[in-house]
Amino acid sequence: MTATSPPPGPLALFGGTFDPIHLGHLRTAFELMQALKLSEVRFLPTGNPPHRQGTLADAEQRLALVRAAVADQPGFTVDDREVRRTGLSYSVDTLSELRAENPGRPICLLLGMDAFLGLPSWHRWQEILQLAHVVVAHRPGWKAPTQGPLGEAMIDRGTGSIRDLHAQPAGRIFVHAVTQLEISSTELRQLIAGGGDPRYLVPDSVRSLLPQLGCYARRQ
Length: 220
Ligand code: ATP
What we know:
Blueprint: E1 11-16, H1 23-35, E2 40-45, H2 59-70, E3 76-78, H3 81-84, H4 91-101, E4 107-112, H5 113-117, H6 125-131, E5 133-137, H7 148-157, H8 162-167, E6 173-176, H9 185-193, H10 204-213
Parallel strand pairs: 1-2, 1-4, 2-3, 4-5, 5-6
Bound molecules: adenosine-5'-triphosphate.
């Protein structure tokens, strides 16, 4: 950065298993990027959970699908650090690394409401709010919590101001409605295993890569 260039806008992180990535993920990230004036949305596929067959495609395959999905969208990037890491990876550790790499820059962690409601079960979740803002995308049927630790966090940290997300590096919670596309990775895996075509549920770049990678199709 030169002395005259403006400070970079918020870096947004969108983590997930992405098994596989679909248009629900992409549309949510795109609408949040536009509405919140985010300068970058970085997709962070999770690594393979050790000692557990947690996903049907391995981390390299899921990473390849995410790369193909975001390739044509300026501002969308991919971070493979969790895929490269061996052993358990916690979001708080990834966020600590990114905070150290981006001192002073606003960081927004993008979560669906279902993921947000599970936040108190995350390792050292309170620290996450010291490292980043949390931006919650509405999904149908989910209500913002008003009680318990998340209800309290909403009272202390909730904001309706996009300016707060740009002015402060971390610490606010912002809830934003996005177009609801009820696509789920679980249903996509079932569809493909049953010989179905995921057209119009995933980007064409992902659809054409799936047969090459051979993931999700039932072995003959
Ligand atoms: P699965 O069906 O395998 O549980 P998932 O799509 O719910 O998959 P992830 O890939 O881990 O799970 O989701 C990553 C993030 O995307 C989470 O924050 C989740 O809330 C959000 N998300 C998942 N599906 C949608 C959707 N259709 N629209 C908007 N956000 C979504």
